[in-house]
Amino acid sequence: MATSLAIRAWDEGDRMTEMASTTKIDGHLVTMDGKQLDVGPDEIERLLSSSVPFWLDLCSGDENSPEYRLLRDTFRFHPLALEDAEHFGQRPKLDSYEDFALLVVYGPAPSGHLVEVHCFCAPNFLVTVHQHPCPGMADVARRIQLGLSPQTSHVMVLYRVVDMLVDGYFPVLAAFDDQIDELEDAILKAPTEAQLGQLFDMKRSLIALRKVVTPERDVFATLVAGDAIPGMTPDNERYFRDVYDHLIRVSDLVDSYRDLMSGALDTHLSTVSNRLNVVMKQLTIIATIFLPLSFLTGFFGQNFGWMVARLGSLPVFIGAGIGLQVLTVIGLMVFFRRRGWLTASGTVPSVSSAPRPRTTSRYRWLVLHPAHAPAAGDEHGGGRPT
Predict the structure, then answer these.
(1) Which residues span the domain enclosing 94?
(2) d(CA 162, CA 87)
(3) How confident is the model at residue 380 (pLDDT cuts 50, 70, 90)?
(4) Is residue 91 part of a domain?
């Protein structure tokens, strides 16, 4: 009896431990004065009742996760907003509710996939929810804790988050630029099927970027034109207008790189077609050379008695049988070369692309921040290399 009670108590203890581990909330809670607190319903209720501004970042799961229950039971967000947070894959948008606003934004992660972030912005707090890890969130939290941000409010934290996500597009697009240059050079030298597959993969990635960048740009155009975010001030609006400017540049880059990809694809197809035409031309030249030779051998191979009786000496054989065929081949080769149908190697020579100046990371940074551009004549200028 005592053994069974001990076993039952052991099982109940294991279940309590398992429930405690499963109810652990994945996220971090930071107040605007830089204090990091434990994430829990009691602590959040205390902050909400005292109107202390804070930022809560959650890595959420399904509707049964503790993060989702925190959004539903503690914050009591609107059911439509909760439904969006439960089913990720939403279009970038900005929805205004009675006491908060929901902003859905995207940004690239270091792993290469797009991270979808749902931002619940209220007058005194900010809640960000995402499914996949986002290392940039930890950097934003570290800046708040160290006091590196001169203006710390939940609206400015929202700016830091979206600015981090939007600026993440530029390294990705810079890598696309380098890949397109290298791919164009390789296509001009020797087009292969592997390059064609790489072209389609890169074009598919650009289309995926365009699907989120274009609506995200429209969302921020609406955001800077009105007071959709609770607690937004005219000074804060200037920062979001800078993010909108970055999105316009990202959208333009995506469109230009998509045109470059289409041009590279056309170059690949035309190069392959030209090389096929060269092969067909060479085969045609060979067939054209053998055509008169076949005629000559057929003509002198006729078994007429007069021809057999009179064309029998060695000089006639060398002159008419061999010399005439050699002269025919030489005459055809001279004719083909004068017409430009032959090349030195017999194939299309490899083409080298014109040298292109490479853009440095400092030049790209100065393009994004023109206010920090050095004065004329500065020896440390960051312009495009010549």
Answers:
(1) 7-167
(2) 21
(3) very low
(4) yes
